Amino acid sequence: MFPDLTRDDVFRIETRRLWLRWPCAKDADAVLRLAGDPAVAGMTAQIPHPLSRAEVDAFLLQARAGNAAGTGLTLALARRSAPANLIGVVGLVGGEGAPELGYWLGRPSWGGRLMGEAVAAVLDAYFAYAGGAAVTASARIDNAASRRVLERCGFVRTGTETRAFPARGGAVTGDLFRLDRARWLGLASIDPETAQAA
């Protein structure tokens, strides 16, 4: 799915305020602290709470393996002023059909409109470098900030679905979204300045 360009761990994307890079072992403490926050984990479908160090280590290994194989692209978010300090994660994971976008941002970085900037950069990379046809995403119905990020980055809501997510202790209802290549090409540009942080 992803070209050789993204399959090397030196690959990165720079935006006005962010540095998106491969996650690495030294990110484990930040992931554990930030993604382990109940306010962050609770808005996702897959991050368990409490979050264990073993689960974080497994996530980092899986993300790097997917990046190397080209089956996904999971990137650590850091501010350009501190590229070694992870503040969140954004990624596209392949599967049957279009890849699915997922992301989370640590609570200390909320409200700065950083996630919209990161999502726009990943979408641009996917459609430009990988020649993708479409991207899907979902957001919990009670996560208005995440839905705003998707809508402001060009995604269109396609429905609502309830799925089983053991990390949340049962079924979770979420809104489904899709962004296809034609719509992405039709956008003058995704305006990350107007996207809300999740």
TrEMBL record:
Output one GO MF annotation. Answer: acyltransferase activity, transferring groups other than amino-acyl groups
The record places domain N-acetyltransferase at: 17-156
Q: Which PANTHER family match?
A: GNAT FAMILY, PUTATIVE (AFU_ORTHOLOGUE AFUA_3G00765)-RELATED-RELATED (PTHR43792), N-ACETYLTRANSFERASE DOMAIN-CONTAINING PROTEIN (PTHR43792:SF16)
What's the protein name?
N-acetyltransferase domain-containing protein
Task: Recite the lineage of the species.
Answer: Bacteria, Pseudomonadati, Pseudomonadota, Alphaproteobacteria, Hyphomicrobiales
